[in-house]
Amino acid sequence: MNKAKARQRLELLWRRGREFLGTEYAIMGGAMSWISERNLVAAISNGGGFGVLACGTMTPDRLAEEILATQALTTRPFGVNLITMHSDLEALIDVCGRLSVGHIVLAGGLPTSASIRRAKDLGARVMCFAPTVPFARKLVRTGIDALVIEGTEAGGHIGPVATSVLAQEILPQIPEVPVFVAGGIGRGEAMLSFLEMGASGCQLGTRFVCATECIAHPRFKQSFIKASARDAVPSIQVDPQFPVIPVRALANNATRRFIEFQHEVIARCRSGEISQKEAQLQIEHYWAGALRRAVIDGDTENGSLMAGQSVGMVSREQPTAEILQELVDQALDALDAREGPSLALVGQ
Ligand SMILES: Cc1cc2nc3c(=O)[nH]c(=O)nc-3n(C[C@H](O)[C@H](O)[C@H](O)COP(=O)(O)O)c2cc1C
């Protein structure tokens, strides 16, 4: 396949995703709390991808400020990621509607049909994470416009199933809406393989952390550059009676201390000093503020270094546009190498 044909093929493979996002490339920069703010989001969108603002725990006014600031840096489409558990979810959706945000990603649990309806009535396209085929079907019935499937290789909060398995299970079953694949994607060849399996596009997070435009603390970025895939591990739960929501992060002092902390809290509960509910709350609150501590303050030992396994493919700081171009070129080169001279010779 020559370069022009490779381009045509890639164009065909991700056309649905590009049309849905309104972008040059069907590559989403997954929202990352504290990291996906105006600068990185605008840089991803300006580079031809689709940036997504992480709302996290922002208030509606703070979100409005961030959306306006992003709109000042790019005229291209970008989305906003809202956490469904946020106590002000409706007001946050309304802010997105008022400021003409084209795409809302509802994350952190399944959204209610009322939230989906509200976002759609305000003119936004709504995306959601689907952990299984039945949930994907339910979300499609509820009127969701596109899905993200995210495998356990991803950074941040994770499910138990690998991206490759989720893709095989879900992509052939959900033709109704565009599906974007996330988790463990570090190179264009992997992106291409998911497109060929039927994905409309991909979402990457870890790969964008060391973008030049990303405001993460230099020490946070250095931790990514130094790390290999096996350093990005899920948080450990020491007792099934005290469940821990798994988060993938680079092992550091905070992850080691978390294990000791759980043992201490559970012992205090078992001795009757605190209730089970109180113990569970303390365990959940352990990580409060920890991502900010690492990303913004640069405390890479006591903060949370959320990162996916693709961290091993992050080797230096690079401009966002260069990262995007590299991914596209890797996909094109892989296509271009097909039916090359060696295969042609085999046919002689
Ligand atoms: C540091 C970090 C923070 C993240 N924060 C969020 C978040 O606030 N909301 C969300 O939906 N996903 C979050 N994610 C997941 C990303 O949006 C994305 O889906 C994921 O990083 C893709 O997998 P990858 O890391 O293997 O590229 C986060 C990921 C990382 C690495």
TrEMBL record:
<keyword id="KW-0560">Oxidoreductase</keyword>
<dbReference type="InterPro" id="IPR013785">
    <property type="entry name" value="Aldolase_TIM"/>
</dbReference>
<keyword id="KW-0223">Dioxygenase</keyword>
<dbReference type="GO" id="GO:0018580">
    <property type="term" value="F:nitronate monooxygenase activity"/>
</dbReference>
<dbReference type="Pfam" id="PF03060">
    <property type="entry name" value="NMO"/>
</dbReference>
<keyword id="KW-0285">Flavoprotein</keyword>
<dbReference type="GO" id="GO:0051213">
    <property type="term" value="F:dioxygenase activity"/>
</dbReference>
<keyword id="KW-0288">FMN</keyword>
<dbReference type="InterPro" id="IPR004136">
    <property type="entry name" value="NMO"/>
</dbReference>
<protein>
    <submittedName>
        <fullName>Putative 2-nitropropane dioxygenase</fullName>
    </submittedName>
</protein>
